[in-house]
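Quick question: what would this complex look like in 3D?
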Amino acid sequence: VILGPESKYAVEPFFFGGTSGTLFGCHHRPPPGIAREHGIVLCAPIGREYIQSHRTFYQLAVRLARAGFHVLRFDYFGCGDSAGDFENGSLRQWTLDIQTAADALERRSDQKHVFLLGMRLGANLAMMAAADNALLNYLVLWEPILDGRRYVSELTSIQKAFSKQFKGKKEHKDDPPQEVLGFRLTDRLRNDLEAIHTDLLCLGPEVRLLTVTNQPHDKDDDALARLIGNHPNSEHRMIADHQAWYEELYKRLIPVETMNFVVNWIDKAHS
Amino acid sequence: MKEHALIFGKDGSLIGILTERDAVDSDQAAHAGTAALLFNAGLIHHVGPNRMYVKLARKLANLGITVLRFDFSGIGDSGPRRDKLPADASMLDEARQAMDLLEQRYGAKRFICIGLCAGAAAAAQISVNDGRVDKAILINPLLPKTPQTELMYYSRYYHKTALFDPRSWFKFLLLKSNYRTLWQVVCLRIKTKFRFNSLSKSELPDIIDELKWFLQKINTRRIRLFLAFSEDDIGDQYLQSVIGLEYNALKRSGLMTTETLAGADHLLTPLVSQQHLLDLVGIWLNDAA
């Protein structure tokens, strides 16, 4: 719905997917006359990480659109502005949502090819979507989850530290938390997350892959090596920068260096 | 329930989500013509902290209230403002544009302003500046940063955390604690325990004047006010100690309701506290209607 005078703002919010439109997205259009052949779908993290990284995704979308790409930021089912409750989401559902988003961007922009750029769990979901669809063959993975068990263990520690601050709200030492920082962690989601392992993510040699990390990966080095080492078409860059999914928003810290690197990499990949 | 994306504003750069009921039942007629606006909690976009604004909007829509969650310019999905209007004036202007839109396109006659933290401060300011607002829901309103509020945060920390932490006691016994602050906190707790307005002379006069002016406007305009404070928040304690007499008078008048959310932090992280707030808001709105 567009009201008021004709918008000069290059961001169009809309609902898509399903019969009544269950997913929310924002389409960032490039300035007239410089549109590239590829569109880019941004795949966000989930839970608190989604909220923390929203500003970075907005800024990244603006930069990519200025570079000539049609960009779609969107919310998975049960996340952000999309329909549903978080606890009803699943990795399978969210992976399908990426495909739905890619289709929506193709229709809106007449682009035949779509790039996926995912952060944290969004990177893993983008990998899963690319494994399902050979047409999604450009991937940028920003700090992917390399070991699901460790990820869940980190989430558990964060939640237990949070619960400890509130008297009477302490969870039993051995009980897995039922929520993590404001979002329900169902048994199904926990099992899905724990099963994430880079060995299981088979990407074809036709996929062009960039992995960017913002923190050194001591324990995960093996996992990272397994992800990119055997892939003939991959590149990895460690950039010491703000962790967008973690920083408190009021600090206004945006990982500018990483964003510039990613935009330049995508720009070169298409020139 | 239906949700639509809206683009509005003078240059079409304000973005929001409208939530409304498919059809209003007879038991929801009490809220006919009422629309609610949810304002950004600081820099958090319109889904709100922990997606709380989405839950609130859907809850209110189920009661028959049309809800708009939008981002002020430069926040979330909305674009930056092109003019040089100061932040406060810009906020009022954009809220007015949102209300005009809901009035003209969706037939809203009365408005409820809602916000958490900085969003509550915005909701408070907008409520008393626009005659169409007849209710406000303020959740953990953002407090001014003054030496008094800083001491209250220390007091909360000592009382809830340090007192039960052996490391803090160890530090205390090794003479490594900040004894000056500790002493100030003890004095503050004694002072505020027995008397309202006990800090009104030590707080900045501008702040006291502004808070009193706000309560006076609420009273004159007969705006119904719902104030919710998390257990972890100092808001209620602060208001009691700086404008307690006026604050409690407004409570007694029936115009203002206050609630404490047990076990909740400032951003309502625990799911149980989110549900608690949703339940309280639902009850209050039905009573207030």
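Answer marked as accepted. The CA atoms of residues 52 and 246 of chain A lie 6 Å apart.
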